[in-house]
Structure formats: structure tokens, C-alpha cells
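Q: Here's a chain of 471 amino acids. Please give me its 3D structure as C-alpha cells.
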Amino acid sequence: MPNSIQIDVFIDGEETPFLDDIKALWINRWAKNYSSLGTLCFNSPVNVKGQAGIAGLPPNLTQAFEIRNPDIFFTARLGGEKIALGGIEITVHSPDGSNVEKRYPFIWAGRKHDFTAFVVSPYMKTRAGGQVNKLPNRHSARNLDFIDEWMVKASPVAPLHQIIPIMELQEDYESARKILKVDLLPLADLSGYFCDLLAEKIKPKSSENRISKFVVDIKKVATACKSVTRYTKPSSFIEQGNRWIQIYNTRPDSGHWERGEGQFDSIDGRLMFTLDEAEIKGLNKALEFWMPQLSSGHAWVVEQVERDHGSKRLRNIVKVLSKYMKVKFADDLTPDDLKILQNNPGLTLERLDWASGILHIAALVGTSSPAAIARAGLKSPSSKTVSDVQRVLESNTTFISTHRLYETAWAESFKKGVLATPSGSTVLAPRIPESQFSIKCDFGNRQVFFAGDCTKAQLMAIRQLHRQCFE
């Protein structure tokens, strides 16, 4: 009687409907082609969002999942050993660069920890304004790079990494088919790959080149996706000799406590994508990541450090990727760095809100209720949080500096602006680390809170005022 082969399934939060389909397709394919190797038994899914779920992972997968939890991941128990087969990250969102790069950390983790990692998405999607987003050229080209890597290894069980547009996620399949002139892969092909991979792990050559056929099919799709798009340079990125610089112009007033992870959106994936570019092409590049408006002393950043980085994306940047690149907060930028930003204003592209200057909180509040502003848009804030923010908003002597380090003559403007405030004023300068203000200056009895001094309540008050003025 063939042995029972147990498959452990790990999921990120709620179980996806894709899982049942994948299991059913896998079981059918196994019964048809590999029943002599053993009987499949899928164990109940384990949620890796909880500590108990993480504890069930092999050590290398624990490290990988700290980078990014996939939606579905499979391991097999073979001869008392847990074998990582790989997993799938699923997105139904627009397959533009940002949404793909948001999930790229799973592919990065797969490459670093030696397991198969797929990101699946629609091929294209139409946004509300009518803009059609397609899988970008750079990501399609990266798919082809991954396939080349796999082929060089000349082994069907070598890990495979790919961003795959699939039929089931494409709402208007005929339109996609008309553009690409090739069929998108169905979910059955992904399920079939994991089935064949398991068979190869148990008995080499048992899959009879089915995995190679799957790779040929994904290469056809990747080639088609690349052929109907044009290459576009990554945004906020500059190359200087062997130095690559990626800018992320997140502001200190962007709601870090309110939106947490959203503050860094897809930037960790973008950095991983760039690092892979150098590795795959054998380029000797030194990557630097700059955050010209965010101080390392920002209260949220400090809080994250104290809590061992609850934000996975910030953790990826400062703990994982800092081994491969240099991370620079606003207080780490040199005068030469700032000249680069001043000479290349497109690198610091940001939504235009408050121009650089000194703003009076009372004027921004106007006739509105400070209590209403303090509470607006926050999800279940504590009464203490609201009262602390409200207290800042009610101050008639508090001002905000909105100066940017990368603007010419900002320091003189800042000095003049602070000295122009009434005696006894408080000036919050959340974008300016004190170490960057080199002008010797006596502000009299005015109190200046530089970036590392601003409290959580003060920063949240600025966020709430920004919401009041612009959202």
C-alpha cells in the first residue's frame, strides 16, 4: 500500500477560495499520474498571522515569512523531513508597477530561501478614470530573467520565480487575449506545477518533462507581455557611476500611526527588485535608499525600533535590506547628497501640499472645531489620543515649519521664519533634523521642536490638519 504523503498548508489570514480549487486540481492530477508514489493528504490550513502558525514553519521559512507572508504556501512531509514546495501571492488589483512590487518581497524571499514563489494577478485592469494598467515591461523582462536562471540550473526541482497573469483573475479575458495573442495560464497549470514538483521530489524524472512544458508556457506569456509594452525607467531613481540611488519622499505628516504599513506601500519590493537587477545582470552597483523628509528620530520610527519593527515593510528596509544597501534617513544625508536632490528636482516628486514656510496652527484650524479635527478619520482612537491631539490644535502659540532639506536656502528661510513668530512661540519642524541645521542661531525664548523632538501628539496633530486642508 503506497505511503500517505502529508501536505501542510500555510495561509495568510483568511482562507482564499483559490485554495480549494488548487487542492482539487492537484488531487485529480496526482490520481491520474502519480498514485503509485503514495496517497495525498492535505492537512488543515495553518494561519501564519498567529504565533502558533509561525511556530509550525521550518526555521528558514520563518525568516522568509518575516519578509512577506504569501497567501498560500505548501510544504510536504517526506521521510520525516519538511520540504518547502513553494507558494502563491494573489492580487486582484491593477497589475501596474506599484501593485506588483508590493508583492515582490515574496519572490525575493523565495530567491533568498530557495523555494518557488509565484505572484499571480490579472494581466490588465481598467481604473475608475478609464486608465488601463498592464503588467509592466520591466516586470515582464524580469520574468524572462527568472526563467533563464531556472534553465541554467538544469533541474526540474530548481525553485521557480514568476509574476503570472492568470485567466481566473482577468475580468475581460477576450480583450487581454486580443492584445497578447497568447492564452493566459489557468489556475490548473499552477496547481499542476506543484503536483509535478512534489512528484519529482519523491521520484526524479517521474514528471516526464511536465515542469519543463510549464516553463515553456510561462515564457510565452512573459514574452508576449514584454512585447506589447515599452520600457520605462523606475521613478525617483538616479544612477551615478556605480551608485544607484532610490528616493522615497515620505513625509512626517503622512499618518504613520493611522496607516502604518501604508506609509511604505511598495517601496521594499521596489528596492528588492533593484537589488535583483544588479545580481541577475552581474552589475557592481552600490544601492542607497534615501528618505529626505523622514528623520530616524521620528516618533513612529523610534516606536517601531522599540517594538522590533511591527511594520514588515519598515523592518524589511532597515533590518533585512540594510545588509545589501545603505539606508539614509534625512539626518544621514550629506551636503553632497542634498546637492544631488537640489539639482534633480524630479527625484523628490511629491504631491504639492504646503509650500515651504512657517504656518500658524490657529490659522489652519480657522473656525473649525479643534475637537472635530482631532478625531476626524481616525479608527477607534483612544480618548487620550484625541485629547492630546486636540490640545496641540488649540494652542494659539504653536507654528509648523514645512521646510524641505533639498530646497535651496531652506536654512536661512527657516531661521527667518522662526524669528518672525511672536516671542514665546513654539515651532514644530518635523521635516528638519537638528543635525542638518548648521546655522548658529539664538531663537530667543521661542521653542523649536526639530524632527527628533516632535511628539506623537504633535505629529498626529499635523496629520489631522493636513487631512483638514487637503483631503
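Q: Can you summarize the key feature?
A: The chain has a mean pLDDT of 93.
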